[in-house]
Amino acid sequence: MIVVSSCLAGLKVRYNGTHSLNHKIHKLIEEKKAVTVCPELLGGFSTPREPAEIIGGNGEDVLDGKAKVIEQSGRDVTELYIKGAFATLKKVQELNATIIVLKEYSPSCGSTMIYNGQFENEKIVGNGVTTALLKRNGLQVISEEQFSEVKVEV
């Protein structure tokens, strides 16, 4: 089974109420070859919500208690991101996912790049909180850009 970020399937669950539709992923959902997950919603957020970034490190640092996820207004939402990461891990394990495709740059889902924590639209190398947890549990996570290169029958 393939697990994908809900926003990549066209669901309007991003912080600003939009989606990041990827047509290849949407087709997999329609054909019931993939299921969606949104770590932020599983963590207790609603849509729309305030933008958040990891401050002081990356997803691994958040899991280790060395960094935080902070909304633009300054509210600490670290625990909600961690809760969503663990809920996503449980779902992925229950589905025996073979491919996990998560939205790049997200503080939850980024798998190679995340925003730098300054709310300046600048990116740094790093994983989001959910991706870090999934990787710690031996799971492979790729971005939508990497997925475009994967051969999957659609």
UniProtKB/TrEMBL annotation:
<dbReference type="InterPro" id="IPR007553">
    <property type="entry name" value="2-thiour_desulf"/>
</dbReference>
<protein>
    <submittedName>
        <fullName>Uncharacterized protein</fullName>
    </submittedName>
</protein>
<dbReference type="Pfam" id="PF04463">
    <property type="entry name" value="2-thiour_desulf"/>
</dbReference>
